[in-house]
Amino acid sequence: MNKQVLKALNLSIEKWERIVKGDGVDRGEDDCALCNMFIKGNCRGCPVSEVIGYWGCNNTPYENWTSHQNLKHWLEDEKKVHCSECKDLATKELEFLKDLRVEYESNIK
Ligand SMILES: [Zn+2]
C-alpha cells in the first residue's frame, strides 16, 4: 500500500489513542492527517471512504461521536472525552481505524 497513506492512517490512529486516554481533542478535519491528504478531493483515495463506500466519514463510528458531542456537549468548547459515553464512542472510532488498517493493508497488496 501507499506509504504516505499508511503514515496518515497511523497518525489518525495516534490522534484517537490520545483522545481515548483523555489527552487529546478532536478538531475534525483540521487535525486529521487523512483529511489533510484527501478532503480537498472529496475523500477520493482515503482508506476510510474506500473501505466504507461513503465520503466524509459517514456511516462510520465518527458519525456517532460527532452527533453525541453536538447533542450532549454543545456547551463545551472542545470535542473530547467529557463522559463515559464519549469514551466508549472514541474507543469505537479507534478500533474502527485499527481494523481499517488491517483491512486496507490486505486489500491494497
Ligand atoms: Zn459524552
Description:
With 109 residues, this protein is mainly α. The protein has one domain (3-108). The chain has helices spanning 3-21, 33-38, 47-52, 61-72, 84-108. Helix 1 runs antiparallel to helix 5 (84-108) and helix 4 packs antiparallel against helix 5 (84-108). The protein binds zinc ion. Zinc ion (ZN) binds at residues 68, 72-73, 82-83, 85-86.
Keywords, please?
109 residues, mainly alpha, globular, binds zinc ion
| Beta-strand fraction estimate | under 5%
Along the chain, the helix and strand elements come as HHHHH
Mean pLDDT: 94
Count of helical segments?
5
Distance between the termini: 6 Å
State the shape: globular
Low-confidence sequence ranges: none
List the helices and strands and how they pair.
Elements: H1 3-21, H2 33-38, H3 47-52, H4 61-72, H5 84-108
Helix pairs in contact: 1-5, 4-5
Produce a short descriptive summary.
It contains 5 helices and no strands. By secondary structure, it is an all-alpha fold. It starts with a helix and ends with a helix.
